[in-house]
Structure formats: structure tokens, C-alpha cells
Amino acid sequence: MKDNYRDLRVAVLGGGTVGAQVAHRLLEGAAELGSRSGAGLSLIGVAVRDLTAERSAPLPSELLTTDAHSLILQADIVVELMGGIEPARTLILEALGSGADVVTANKALLAEHGPELFDAAARVGAQLYYEAAVAAAIPIIRPLRDSLAGDRVTKIMGIVNGTTNFILDQMDSKGLSFDAALAEATALGYAEADPTADIEGFDAAQKACILSSLAFHTAVPLEDVYREGITAVSAEQIEAAKKSGHVIKLLAICERSFDTATGREGVSTRVHPTLIPRSHPLAAAHGANNAVYVDAEAAGPLMFYGAGAGGAETASAVLGDVVSAARRHVAGGPGVGESTHADLPSIPLDHVASRLNISLVVKDQPGVLAAIARVFSDHDVSVETLHQSASGEGASGSETATLVIQTHSALEARGRETVDALAANPVVVGVTNVLRVEG
Ligand code: NAP
User: Fold this and answer.
1) Residue 399, H or E segment
2) How far is the CA of 121 from the centre of ligand 1 (A)?
3) Among residues 172, 165, 294, which one has the least CA distance to residue 236?
4) Which of 192, 314, 318 best tests ligand 1's pocket when mutated (most atoms within 8 Å of CB)?
5) What domains lie within the chain, and their CATH numbers?
6) Atom 35 of ligand 1 has which residue's CA nearest to it?
7) pLDDT for residue 335
8) Parallel, antiparallel, or unpaired: how do β-strands 428-437 and 265-277 relate?
9) pTM tops 0.85
10) Of the listed 2, 107, 155, 207, which one is catalytic?
């Protein structure tokens, strides 16, 4: 840690949506933030690429610089809000190497290079804060790291991507198709010109990786996170979910359980569209909001809800970290490293137990239900509920019926084999919908 504990110099890297808000609020609220920190907080500069670009909040031009390296060397606290992997990674390593504490909102960088950055911080006794990296304004990192440090988290289910929640919510509330809902998200600025990272679940997978690592005291590699996006979710699936009292959400699920193949305790981290009852607390997360549901052994279920994006909203979490960093400078002592003591293995998806909701169109003739039941029992998957709805006419002119079957918890691999066997069975006209169920 650097010498001057009482008048702390803060450098902000990035003056975009979040960076401009953070810098502006640091200038406007310096006295109040200083009182809360027990230290003076001076913004010494904001590193950007283009000195002439328009900023979303007023910033004195003399604070802007394109020389991030020089800025870092003068700072006690470095706030990285550039995004992306490079040069953010190198600059954070430089900042930590110089003894500065670092605050970042960069989920992509933490998911890919978290262990390297945390090791670098631990080596010099500096601290790396990242409250804004998951669910922006919602306090979730500090509760998991500090408030629940005396408990044992068993499961987290999070709506951690506002764009996909907005799209699914529009499909649910207005009956829109996926394409129409995406177009609306784009028009309103909730989706980027290239929405791939959001709609294919990459962004949620990065956040799931961060949450799982933190909650289960284990460095979970990003490549161990199973990921499915929402591009295949159809208006028909949304309508069927509604009829059965469910809603479809893209969930990041982090679970501590046992690998059914090895019997060893491990961590399952997965992102996929999920059917949840409309009465579940997560079903109440509408629009672009985020929500994180945490289950802990002693605390029981806890729910965190709020804005998962936005310049001012994200700045709130970033500034909270700046105050924490300043307090640590005042108090002194080494930074507290990330706890990876549990070092649990990742559980492959096939060894995880899931409940499935399967819709299929079948021939409406005697013996069909017995044939379907046999497919389930052959694969060791037991049926929890079965609903049959009105008959129609299939392509061949014969009568058909729709079955919606919900299974009990069964191995993912068995569930997939069951669906394949159903699709190949002569009494089945087609499998129209398969979704995992939670809650
Ligand atoms: P942004 O609007 O794209 O801003 C990025 C800023 O970094 C810009 O000011 C840009 O400079 C600067 N920059 C980029 N590369 C640079 C380089 N090589 N050298 C100097 N400056 C460089 O991004 P943002 O939305 O504020 O996001 C920042 C971080 O917060 C990201 O990690 C993001 O994932 C995270 N985050 C954002 C939100 C949100 O709602 N936006 C929410 C949670 C977390 P110019 O302005 O000159 O181009």
C-alpha cells in the first residue's frame, strides 16, 4: 500500500456509460464520500481513448487523458471501467503491482482471468473489488463474500442479464415473437447492435462463473459453465408456460451438490432458459431488472432485486467499492484474498439432476399412453404429472393429441436419452418443447 493514507488519489480508467458517472459523482460528492471513508478522495484523472468524445456526465477536460499508464502510477485506488480483456487486464495488473487497490465492473475479465488478478492482488496485499460486475446496482458480491461468510450457500439462481429478461418479459406480457421482442429491446437501447453476448447467454455465463467461484470458495473455470441462450424460445413455449402457471426466465444456476457419477461433492454452474412457477420470487423480476435468489443452509432463501445495468445504477456499486477501498487504506493491513479453500470440482451437466417439462404431439389411438410410459421407465425417469389436451389432426389426416409431461428429478443424460427415444417412437408425431424446471 502507498504512503499517503489520508488523502487518497483515485484514477478512473474509462469515461463511458459507467466511467463518466463514477467520475462525475466522485467530483460532486467528494466531501460526503470522504466523510464516509475517513479519507480525502481526489479524482486525479479519467483515461479515455478519444479526448473529444461527448461524455454522458460533465467532466472537466483537464482531467481527461489518453495516458492510462502514467495515471495509474500516481493513484492509490484505480477504478477500471474500460471493459474487455486488453488493455484492462494489463492495466489492472500494473495497478495492483504498484500497490494500488483496484475496483472493476469487468465481468468478462474476471470470468476469464479472475485467479490471475486475485493472485496478483494477494502478492502485494492489495484488494480487488468487483461489486458492479454482477447485477450492477444490486449488492450481491458483498453479501456473498461477507454477510454470508458464516453460512454455507447451497444454491444461487439469478436473472443476471437485463436484455434477455426484457425480451422474455415482452414475449410473456405482450405475446411477441422472439424477433419482435429483440427488435423492441434494440430500439429502447436494452440490446446492443450485436446482441450475441446477451441472447446466447455468454454474459450470464460470465456472471454465473463469478458467483459460483465466490459462493463456493472455488475457482470455477469459465469453460466449466454450461450455457444455452434464449434464441430458441418460441412464442408457443411462452404461451404453454403461461397456461401451466409458469414463466420462462434465463437463469444462471450455481449449485453445490454431489456428482451422481462419482459421489463427490462438487459445483454445477449452468445458464439456460428455465420454467419457474409464476409464484416464485424470481418470476416477479420484470423488464430489464435483475434478481438473484440465494439459498443458504442457515439463512434459508434470500432474494436480491433491482437494476442490473445503467450508468448511474452501476456507478452506485462502483462508488461503494471505492469507499470500501478508501476505508481499508485508512485502517491499513493486508487485503483479504479470494477464498478458494473448498476447491470443489465442477460437475459435468450430464451428472446433474434436472426436472424436465416435455411437450409432445402423439397419435390419438389406444395404447399410446402405455407406450409413452414405457419410454420413461426404460430410461429410469419417473413422471410427476401428465396433461393431455384436445385432439387435432396430424399431417397424415389422423387424430392427434398433445401431452405435457413433467418429470421428477432425473439425470440430465437420462432426460436427454428419454427425449431422443420419444422423438423416435412411432406413436409420437413430434417433440415440440423441452424445458428444465426449477422452483
Ligand atoms: P463504455 O460505455 O463502452 O465505456 C468504455 C470507456 O473506456 C470509454 O470511455 C472508452 O473511451 C474507454 N476505453 C476503452 N478502451 C480504452 C483504451 N484502450 N484506452 C483508454 N480508454 C479506453 O463501457 P461501459 O458501459 O461504461 O462499461 C464499462 C465496464 O462496466 C464494462 O466492463 C462493463 O461490462 C461494466 N458494466 C457496465 C454496465 C452498464 O450498464 N453499462 C453495467 C455493469 C457493468 P472513449 O470514450 O474515448 O471511447
Assistant:
1) strand 399-407
2) 22
3) 172
4) 314
5) 8-136+312-331 (3.40.50.720), 141-307 (3.30.360.10), 352-437 (3.30.70.260)
6) 105
7) 85
8) parallel
9) yes
10) 207
Asked if residues 83 and 14 have their Cβ atoms less than 8 Å apart, the reply is yes
pLDDT at 397: 67
How far is ligand 1, taken at its centre, from the CA of residue 13, in Å?
8
Cell numbers standing for residue 196: 450475441
C-alpha–C-alpha distance, residues 21 and 265, integer Å: 43
* Residue 247: closest CA among 173, 140, 306, 141: 173
**List of residues 6+ apart from 210 with CB closer than 8 A:** 107, 110, 111, 114, 130, 133, 134, 141
Is the Cβ–Cβ distance between 336 and 142 less than 8 Å?
A: no
Sequence-distant (≥ 6) Cβ neighbours of residue 36 within 8 angstroms: 323
d(CA 351, CA 392): 38
- Which amino acid is present at 10? V
DSSP notation for 25-52? HHHHTHHHHHHHHTSEEEEEEEE-S-TT
Residue 274 scores a pLDDT above 80: yes
d(CA 403, CA 388): 5
Take residue 160 and report the three cell numbers written for it.
443476471
